[in-house]
Each structure stands twice: as C-alpha cells, then as structure tokens.
Amino acid sequence: MFKNNIKIISIIIGTLIGAGFASGKEIYTFFVKYNSLGFFSVIFSCFFIGLIINKTLLLILNNNINNYSDFLNLLFGENKFKKIFYFFINLFLLLSYITMISGFNSFFKQELNIPKIITCIFICLFCFFIFRKNISSILNINSILIPFLIFIIFLFGFLDIPKLNINLFFNNIFYFNNSFFECFLNSILYASYNCIILIPILISLKKYLKNKKQIKYISFFSFIFLCSLTLIIFLFIFYLPNNYLYEIPIIVILNNFSNIQKNIYGIVIAIAILTSVISSGFGFIDNLKNKNNFIIFLISFLPIFFINISFSFLVNFVFSFFGYIGLVQIIFILLKKTHFNVIKVYRKI
Question: pLDDT-derived band of residue 336, with 50, 70 and 90 as boundaries?
C-alpha cells in the first residue's frame, strides 16, 4: 500500500509540475507578479487542488469510474453539453502537450543553444514510445524521477532561501493593492487548468485505489509537496530583478548558483517538463476512442508544427483561457455529493 501511495503521489506531482512551473514562467504569471499577495494565493491554490484531488478520487472510487467519458457522464449526464465540454478538455490536453514541449525546446535553446528542432524531434520520439505503453510505465518513471525532483528543490530552498532578504518580503506581506480580486481569480484559474490535465490521470489510477483513508493521505501529501515546492520557486523568482522580462526566469536565477547546482537544477527542469509532457499527452491519447500506432505517431510529432510559437505566449494564453473552461468542471465536482465529508478530512489531519 505504501509503495503504491508513493507512486500515486509521484505521478500527481509529476503531472502538476511542468514546463511552466519548473521554468518559473507559470509561477510568475499567476503568483509572483502580485508580489507578496501571491504568497497567500499559492497556499490557497494548492489547497484547492488538494481538495479537488480528494473529491475526484472519492467520486472515482465510489462510482466505479473507468474512463474520462464516464466521469463526465457522472458530472453532466449524457447530453450535448457534455460532448462540447469533452471536446474542449481534450483540446486543452493536446495544447498543453504542445506547450510543455515548447518549454522543453526553449529551455535547451536558452541554456545550451541547442536548435529547437533537434530537442523537439528527440522528445517527440521519446513520447511516441511511452504513449504506446500503459499507465504502469508512467508510474514507474515518475516513482523514480519525481522523488529526486522534490529532494533537489527542497535542498536548493534550504541552502539558498536563507541567503535572500526575507525581511523585505515580510515587510510587505500585508500590503494588498487593487489587484486582490485578480490575484484570487488567477489562483483559481491555476488550480482549474492544472486539474484539467490531472483528472484523466487520476481516473487511470483507479486500480491502485483501495479505500477512503488512502485517498485522504494521497490528497493531503500531494497538497503539502505541491505547496512547498511552489513557494520555494515563488521566493526565488520574487527576488529576481526585472523578473517580468524573462521567458524562463529560473535560468537567470541559476546564474547565481555554482556550476554544480546549475547543472543539477537543469536536470530537475528537464525532468519536470518531461513528466508533464507525458501526463498531458497520455491524457489526450487515453481519451481517444480509436487509437493505433499511426494516430499515436501523428499526435506525438504534432508539436513540430508549432515549434516557432513563443513558450510565453502559450503559457499566458492557453492556460488562462482554458482555466475558465476548467472552472465548470471544478464547480460540478464540488457540488457532486459523495458519501464522505471532504472538508472533514483536512480538519482531522
């Protein structure tokens, strides 16, 4: 049971921490640009994601949900609205896959000056072989890569955050300006579009779910790890001068690290992007009714046609737009009754 829980938590974190997160662009866009206020919205957003994880897993377990179509039937019923929503969700998963690969290309172009076409072909080929397998393969990959990623980010935070001028942060922590509502909305949107990617993966994990107690710990520790990792990245970018100028701000931060730290975190970024690329692409392909090696091949190599589109544009447009669409799904999930009090879970913990 413990081993399965570690694997499930690893795949959840691997799904949520993608190109936008590890590069810092996503954290800047949704949190850091609101200064100290963004610190609180990180905590709220991560708690909200943990709540959705808990409620979704309970619905999957209690209603014997086996695929995403069945899950949407549970939420909306079998009607035209469900079909339209299903289309937009799959479109987002596909665009997210393209966005994550764009982040992968931008990272290696900015850091090592490797042409985008080379890295794009490499990762698309890798994804093609992974997508032909099942969720167990992704579990095995993430159970190795994600604990390493979590450890390194925590280590860097422990070593480097104390060197920052924390007093500057706390002196302004209770200063709220007119962007309070916008910041709150963005924290909801951040949770919303992340859950679009996450929910198909959660459904595929159903065979590993045993009881409600297991779900309680999975959702709680997913919240703890996600919140901690996000706050560490937040603080790094918060203190970066002119942080709004950079497509991948974390690269600029790494210039202040030693060469060893820089190389290690470079591996962390690559891992984060890779796990999220796999999750979003697998989520889309898993939802297809008719899939064969040729279809999987076409989808895997689709990002090549979008290779010149800016990573920043994709993060700012795709994630924000589909965040609003994902709100519909979240509202229906929260309103759907289970035989278990989700709020009570967090109080007991």
Answer: confident
